Amino acid sequence: MTAFFSVTTECQILIGIFNGFSWIRCEGKGSFLNSPLLKEFGAVRMDAGESCLVVDLEACTGMDSTFMGTLAGIASRLSAIGAGGLHIAGADARNRRSLEDLGLDFLMEIDPADAVWLADIETIRVDLRPPQPIASQSPVQRTQLVLDAHRVLSETNEKNASSFSTVVHLLEAELTEKLALAPKSARD
User: What residues pair up with 14 in beta bridges, in sequence order?
Assistant: First the structure.
């Protein structure tokens, strides 16, 4: 395995790079706190030519909208480049329902029966490792990430657009305010 990332959160993130796919395991709550790691690891792997990313939710106790929006953003990017897509492994009934309620099951495959990794799932989970730390984000970058995640959710369907419109507007206003107050170096 190579290229590790990490973030201190209420949740442990474990990762692995395998032949034909990369794996991210969320142990605890998937939230805005670990969404930067999810987004960065996904981007690094896609930039390296990875066509299939697997997010393992077997030990995930729940997901907030930022985490799900980050998943949707990764799935959309993989779909746009015609890649293998985003797979969700081990989703319990609650996490599956959360993804389905937002219509995200149309962007990603939840527990696909024909996945190349399915026969080796227990071996994969044993081989996962904590990632290396990533740089902490500025308040501007954190707000931008949360805004981007909610924009992706809003673009998924009309119900989400209605549900998240207030959140998106508030985040846009917050980002504008933070940009106005931030030194130039924090805006990048």
Answer: 25
